[in-house]
């Protein structure tokens, strides 16, 4: 099978405070950095050579994954000196590719959790004779996405900006963030400047008469760009709703990693993950949440659909519902944090002082 490019250079601004110290693809999901799931699924589909296009906190990737041999891969790393956008990042790694001009190259966005049939996408590309093939998925409400209509043969007919009125919603198909490019198309992307594949490369190819093919695959798909989506994606991996050969254990209601401590009467449900050296106290209830390495949930706390950062501490009887707690933060006993509230890394909230929610 073909080689691949993984775009992992984004700053993950929408995921802060999770990405203050960690690039988005390295935030743990179901017990391992999210990027591990993408690499493992690519390898399972027959990919052997992957180039990682890095930028933000680029120095953390290679020490963790090395040359990729532990995953049965050959990994290479290319770091952008200045942000180049999706198309610019793809062009920036072209020199590391081994493909001939007519060969297909897989390209993945580093923040998409998907059950995409990778082999089927490559087969569609080859049989259709396309210059570029796109994974498309259908969504119930496409207003937050750019639309990608296709004809009866699956050939892309347009790239439409986010619709503003019902009349503009001409399809429920959206760009799902995985592509197959002919190597020659990659080499034709302008070098040394920012380029967006969504706004420049794809519309330009279409205008020039190139063949862009869409393949609709509406299996599991989730954009992990927000903390709430990231928590949900991790839980879905543990529950087995999202496929990955990299989950370090059996699928089920909970995933407790080695050296974690969980009180016998604590209740863990909904795909909850408890990281290494983390502790869950007596009578605590944790549902659909991620508790990262070294974090502590004290007795009687109730945590739902939340993420607790590395080394953070949640006080006794405190309630978290849809909250994100940054690394090393300390939430005192008897607080209540709900509805998307985010607590910054290292922050300290005294006992019994907070009874509010926030969507900021």
From TrEMBL:
Domain Mannose-1-phosphate guanyltransferase C-terminal, chain residue ranges per copy: 252-335
Pfam families xrefs: GMPPB_C, NTP_transferase
Domain Nucleotidyl transferase, first and last residues per copy: 4-236
InterPro entries according to UniProt: GMPPB_C, Mannose-1P_guanyltransferase, NTP_transferase_dom, Nucleotide-diphossugar_trans
UniProt record similarity statement: Belongs to the transferase hexapeptide repeat family.
Protein name: GDP-mannose pyrophosphorylase
Organism: Streptomyces albospinus
Organism phylogeny: Bacteria, Bacillati, Actinomycetota, Actinomycetes, Kitasatosporales
